[in-house]
Amino acid sequence: MRPKWCKTTVLASFPRGSACTARQLKHSANRIYLDARASVPARRAGILNEDRIELPDDAIGASAERRSTRDLRKPSRAGIQHERAVGLMSRQTDNTYPKPLVMPKRGPSAALRLLIVGILLMGAAFIYFLFRDQLGDGFALVLMGVLSMVGVFYLFGAATGLIQFSQRSDHQDLAHSFMDTQPEGTVISDPRGQIVYANQAYARMTGATDADGIRPLDQVLASEPAASDAIYRLTNAVRDGLSAQEEVRISGGLSRGANGSLAPVWYRIKARALEGGAEFKGPLVAWQVADISEERAEQERFFQELQEAINHLDHAPAGFFSANPAGRIIYLNATLAEWLGVDLTQFTPGSLTLNDIVAGSGMALIKAVKAEPGTSRNTVIDLDLIKRNGQSLAVRFYHRVQTARDGMPGTTRTIVLDRAEGDDSSVAQRSAEVRFTRFFNSAPMAIAAVDAEGHTLRTNARFLDIFSGVVDRDAIDRRVKLENVVHERDRETFNKALAAAFAGQASISPVDTVLPGNEERHIRFYMSPVTDLGGEAAEEAAVISAVETTEQKALENQMAQSQKMQAVGQLAGGIAHDFNNVLTAIIMSSDLLLTNHRASDPSFPDIMNIKQNANRAASLVRQLLAFSRRQTLRPEVLDLTDVLADLRMLLARLVGKDIELKIDHGRDLWPVKADLGQFEQVAVNLAVNARDAMPEGGQITLRTRNIPAADAAKLHYRDLPEADYVVFEVEDTGTGIPADVLEKIFEPFFTTKEVGKGTGLGLSMVYGIIKQTGGFIYCDSEVGKGTTFKIFLSRLIEEKRADDAPVAAKEKKVEKATDLSGSATVLLVEDEDAVRMGGVRALQSRGYTVHEAASGVEALEIMEELGGEVDIVVSDVVMPEMDGPTLLRELRKTHPDIKFIFVSGYAEDAFARNLPADAKFGFLPKPFSLKQLATTVKEMLEKQD
């Protein structure tokens, strides 16, 4: 037989990721050919599930039998047989099996056969009775022996099961009758494609009149290009053990116009595998074909009616839209789209939201409409819409909301009318109404009108927006009293102001309150009386306006806190400066005493104790200066990765063994500019603070990372500008900080520790150092979970200069002098007698010639007396008559090369800004020891300009 070819478009259901091999396609006497370019796009939708098979772009050719394990996705040129690049299939059959049965004829049953045998035996017995005399006794014995043998054989066969009396014939008759009465055509084929059963409906569909006219389905559809791919895919599905179905359209039907009609007929073809057993050497394939033309026609009529209804709705003289519970518009008719300037060809369901088309606070009016569970509610709303060109459109909503029985909001449907149009004879009145509605609903403040008893008559959109958590639209429709939106503690004041408005008073003080249930939101109410100029009693007795002042209150609190911190800082800085002078005198006097006393001297421990306590006091003063941002910083370019790596051992010892210390280094950190020593102090203070918050142990994590400007803008930290930052975080798993304490943690002398266990200056010093560095610090904490301090340091972008190398060479650090003696002439200028006397004795003990002055004016006089024979000047900054910077400027006029050292309790940059940019000088912060003074003078004298 010559191969028969068929092609059809198919969308079959398959599991994802399945792959067919040539072995799965192999038949004993069949060959499958698949074009290498076969690919049929799925153009229909709705009848199949989500999982779909896709025809591979390669094919198995005639060599599939020789290479049965070859994957379908490997190309075989031998199978490319069709010029239209679609899947082709050929079946070659032989006549091994009998002809197909349309209505199989049934043979006699076992009972009937036994009845016939019994009749024959009775006939034989009757004949023997008639002719027994002629036959003789020998014949009778032989006959009886044969019958006995037959009887024994039947008994033995029945006992052993070789002979069975089955009732299957009746069951088969019932199955055949059932299948033949089915309206769907059914045909069953064996693994080689031979038909083993076909019912009457299949015969009628295909135009067959007898068994010889029955053909396999693939041969029936061989001339239909639109069906070949469907058969191919269904065949593959069955081979994979799956069931599948397809719908195909065939001109003239399967009988090819046998009734004279070539009208297209729609068929639904189903295929599934049946267990064939040993008789058929493999599974059978059951094909079912149903005529669904009427069903398709009904669907087409439904779609046409639906399209007609949509067309009517689209071009209705009113706008219409539907939105889901999230506020996304899922349908928009053409009329409303034209009003808004929306291109419907670009509109997709959900691409627009109500916020995109509703102007001002109109959304508050829409959100306020709610329905009870299991019901719907209709409401009329006047508001403005926003056109695509930015213009507003005054409309009236006939808004319908529905709620499911479980309380979940459903889809809303809204009819929109243009309020600029209508049949109202009074155009001026309608225009005035539109203008008032626009003003009322678009006002930035909440407005409510009340009657003489304080009941709410009407409110605008902003009112519903602000007080949505206190009252809803239903309460307003029931004319709830306006005092319900005021906190209980302020209702008496509010009602007094409202009574004044009812009395017609013009000037009424505003009432400040907070929202009931949310005291973090602040509201201010303004009262205005309503005066009816016409003489008639007006329903409205007063108009109340309300504005939210939450942000204003926050700014006021922030300003008050900032002013308090500034005042404390100024006070702390002033105290620290004066205290530094006292400490300097104590420390230098202690050093002088220690030089004259040996360790074995009985007074040596007392002198050492004085010095140690003075140093401890100096540490507290430095913390005060750090908080007031008046300490001297030596900023340099830092890589925080290296800084934390160097600190790891120290921090591990500080936090102890009960706490796990983890350092998470960010990748490719940007450089920052900060004082190394001060930053280390910040890290130590935060680590110790975290340790104290975990008395039972825990984990401290030090983390660094880069944050680009775009990400910084999303953090919403107060006062944090949008810029590139390097963030240093210290996170602990401790007890956390309560909200009332969190606001005070950076204040000096504030501590939650027991007396004697904390000064309250640790975090305030951290705050001051970070602020003086130009950074920002924030604290996030949750009680019971832990605290995280985040420090933001600005990214340093260095500008390379041509003279970088020479400058770097000049700025090399001078090694500290080990020999502190000298013979130079020193002019010491200090207004504090104790500090001046200590400095003179300290320098003289090192071999220097020292002249002293109590002010800048006196220092100039001494310089004139000495004729400028002074090698170095050591001067305080703040002095009466003439301060240190002025003294430097005056001396440099006549002695431009004279060396100069400032000593001060203030930061260096506090006075350096008053000097020329090229001024060269040294700096020694107070308090200082005898050794520190001698070292600074020695290094300054040896420094090459």
Assembly state: single chain
Give the structural class: alpha+beta
Query: Share of helix among residues?
Result: 25-40%
Q: What is the CATH class of the largest domain?
A: Alpha Beta
- Kindly report the spatial arrangement of strands forming the biggest sheet: 10-9-8-13-12-11
Based on Cα principal axes, name the global outline: elongated
Q: Could you state the CATH homologous superfamily of the largest domain?
A: PAS domain
Radius of gyration (CA) equals 51 Å
> Strand tally, please?
30
Domains, number: 6
Transmembrane segments: 110-131, 138-163
Keywords: Kinase, Membrane, Phosphoprotein, Transferase, Transmembrane, Transmembrane helix
Domain Histidine kinase: 574-797
Domain Response regulatory: 825-941
Can you offer a commentary on this structure?
The protein is α+β, with helices and mostly antiparallel strands and 945 residues long. The protein folds into six domains: 109-167, no CATH class; 170-298, PAS domain (Beta-Lactamase); 316-426, PAS domain (Beta-Lactamase, 2-Layer Sandwich); 443-622, 2-Layer Sandwich (Beta-Lactamase), CATH 3.30.450.20; 636-794, Heat Shock Protein 90 (2-Layer Sandwich); 825-942, Response regulator (Rossmann fold, 3-Layer(aba) Sandwich). Helices cover 37% and strands 20% of the residues. The protein is built from 28 helices and 30 strands. The strands form seven sheets. It has a six-stranded antiparallel beta sheet. Strand 29, helix 27 (909-912) and strand 30 form a beta-alpha-beta unit. The radius of gyration is 51 Å and the shape is elongated. Mean pLDDT is 74; it is low at 1-107 and 801-815. It catalyses: ATP + protein L-histidine = ADP + protein N-phospho-L-histidine.
